[in-house]
Amino acid sequence: QVELVESGGGLVRAGESLRLSCAASRAIVGIHMMGWYRQDPGKDRELVASISSSGTTDYRDSVKGRFTISGDIAKSTVSLQMNSLKVEDTSVYYCRIYSWTYGREYWGKGTLVTVSS
Length: 117
What we know:
Elements lengths: L3 E4 L2 E4 L4 E7 L6 E9 L6 E7 L4 E3 L7 E6 L4 E6 L8 E9 L4 E4 L3 E6 L1
Parallel strand pairs: 2-11
Antiparallel strand pairs: 1-3, 3-8, 4-5, 4-9, 5-6, 7-8, 9-10, 9-11
């Protein structure tokens, strides 16, 4: 069973940076999409950023220009560089990898990011 493990969360002040990383316990074949999501208590999980196997990236409007997603298909890893963090970026962040070959998605267990004012 493949597991995704996130790291890099923590407590920072507004304006500071964090880098989240996600690695699969073993290589995932046929990756189509990798992404980062976040979820607040009582709210739906929302897409923060994604990167396709061709390298196309997408960001939610509120993080454009501040966050950068990168991924390594061969290593089944995905990272999220978060700059100029805001209090409203506080959330639990989850990584997700979707495989065409296996026809399924994999999720990490989440890492908490807290931004103080």
